[in-house]
Design brief:
Strand 5, helix 3 and strand 6 form a beta-alpha-beta unit. By secondary structure, the protein is of the alpha/beta class. Helix 4 crosses helix 6. The strands form two sheets. Strands 6-5-4-3-2-1-14 form a seven-stranded mixed β-sheet. It is 23% helix and 28% strand.
Length: 275
């Protein structure tokens, strides 16, 4: 089967950006990954990496953005406020998130935290609130036979999160960031990710660091490898690295992970994966 999704990495960090020299091989921006299906661009999280993606979208003359938000912690939404398409009167921006997303985002985008709210920008901004566990199609594609289907699953994270599965033409991408594993969550996610093509995984901590940070709502690359294998996912992409992990440390982790499972890749900003 031919690949149908062009997946690109724009941000790889959790918590805060790290624009330091020792972090730039993998990247210093917070979470943002795009998935392009036949010219329809789906954006997974809106961390600081969204800025670079937005600049390219503007150069290419794109007028629509569909942004799926896993949750509203700052590292996953900080790229929204300077997103170039907000200032294009012809642009349509669709934001998808949990119940309450509209209220909470409106509180962030505007006085006293930011000079402009979403109602102040030229672009048309629509917020679509969804219940984690349901499935939907992108706005306007509900009746399209080749529309992108989005399935969702509640994640285990302080304040909650949504895990997404994108499906089109027999190919699927699972976005599973900010989710802590226990046996129940692992079982649900194994079923959710079953026979997927690409699993985008929260490799925030090593096993050793994770043991000291239970309750923080994150996972490790070791847990991701186990899930990939048990769910039968074709490939796994590690991302959302702790801001403390510099390039040299991540190189060591990557070598160990790839040695354990050759279907594993560590995300680097600018990386392209065809799914």
């Amino acid at each position: 089967m031919e690949p149908v999704w062009k997946t690109e990495v724009w941000g790889v960090r959790g918590a805060i950006p790290m624009p330091e020299a020792d972090y730039l091989e993998y990247g210093g921006h917070t979470s943002c990954i795009s998935a392009d299906f036949g010219g329809r661009l789906v954006i997974l999280d809106a961390g600081s990496g969204l800025t670079g993606l937005g600049l390219r979208m503007r150069r290419e003359g794109r007028k629509r953005a569909d942004i799926l938000l896993s949750h509203l912690h700052i590292d996953h939404v900080s790229g929204l406020f300077g997103f170039p398409l907000l200032f294009d009167p012809e642009a349509q921006i669709h934001l998808y998130g949990r119940q309450g997303t509209g209220k909470h985002l409106s509180a962030l985008a505007g006085t006293p935290y930011w000079p402009l709210g979403f109602s102040d920008v030229p672009a048309q901004v629509e917020i679509h609130e969804i219940e984690a566990g349901e499935h939907f199609f992108l706005a306007g594609e509900e009746k399209e036979p080749d529309g992108i289907k989005v399935r969702t699953l509640p994640g285990k994270h302080p304040g909650g999160s949504i895990l997404y599965r994108l499906e089109a033409e027999g190919r699927s991408i699972i976005h599973a960031l900010d989710c802590e594993m226990d046996e129940e969550m692992f079982r649900k996610l194994r079923n959710f990710a079953e026979d997927g093509d690409l699993l985008i995984w929260d490799a925030n901590f090593t096993e050793e660091d994770l043991a000291q940070r239970r309750g923080w709502g994150h996972s490790s690359w070791g847990e991701g490898l186990r899930l990939r294998q048990e769910a039968g996912v074709r490939e796994i992409l590690m991302t959302h690295y702790s801001w403390e992990y510099a390039d040299r440390f991540l190189q060591e982790q990557e070598k160990m992970a790839v040695h354990a499972d050759t279907a594993c890749r560590f995300a680097k900003e600018g990386m392209v994966i065809w799914v």
